[in-house]
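@channel sequence for tomorrow's demo:
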Amino acid sequence: MRLFLGVDGGQSSTTALVGDGEGRVLGVGRAGPCNHAGTAEGRDKFTSAISGSVRAALAEVGAPDGRFEVACLGLSGGAADKDILARQIVPAEKYFITHDALIALAGATAGEPGIVAIAGTGSIAFGRSADGRTARAGGWGYVFGDEGGAFDLVRQALRAALRHEEGWGPATAMRTALLEATGAHDANDLLHRFYASEYPRARVASFARLVDDAARAGDVVARDILNWGAQALATLTGAVRRQLFPAGARARVSYAGGTFQSAMLLERYRMLVELEEGNCVAAPEYGSAAGALIEAYRAANVKCTLKNVPEDIFNKYE
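structure tokens (generated this afternoon):
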């Protein structure tokens, strides 16, 4: 049996999909995060996540010692420090080891040309044209970029709370929501907590739902933050479009990441992107793991449509 592998190696979890030669998904495996491999501890976690997810997927296939015709691994943070290690872990005839933005695009558009805006903890826009050219905008981290990502939304919410406490900003329900969610005494106390190690970026970013809750309840400051986030993500999308698609040409645009679970932000983003002639915003077809499997088939020049894809792989937010 011909076997193909797609792996989404992310900051929060790792998912492996095994498919046959006709696009049918035969097995799914899941494990922990694998986004760092620069230290001994990071390499151990990476090895455990990749090997564990692949073994679990192969067990569902009934081929624990299976070897893949092509293995595509899309890895958070890129492949620079993980390529050699991944090849040692996964048995395959051919490898395509890449970054997570490419497999997110492949999943969102089912392998078709287009652009994806990714807004999870951070943010980036990535695209690929019909002739295979790629381009990106954003993705420069929480200090110098990641506009419109969940961490950025929470950062702005805390800044708004601080401004109110200092007497130079309007009141916002986000202040009370953040204090209640964290147990902080005031915005200054919360600021110092967010600087501490017990609040890593992903944990801070998880409070972005409070911004959305406040905006839906009518909080003007929260609504402005979401609108700004949508504008930033639309700007990144436009920058990628100009690098890849002629003016007025049709371009499929999709999205991925938990920030887009905000209906208010998503609708604002859709409206702004579709102001540009040719853009059409559509919900993602699949998540990143399915995108990695699609890229494995592409690397083998196998033309097929995915079948038997698990429900939770469709339209998955990471």
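heads up for whoever presents: The chain has a mean pLDDT of 91.
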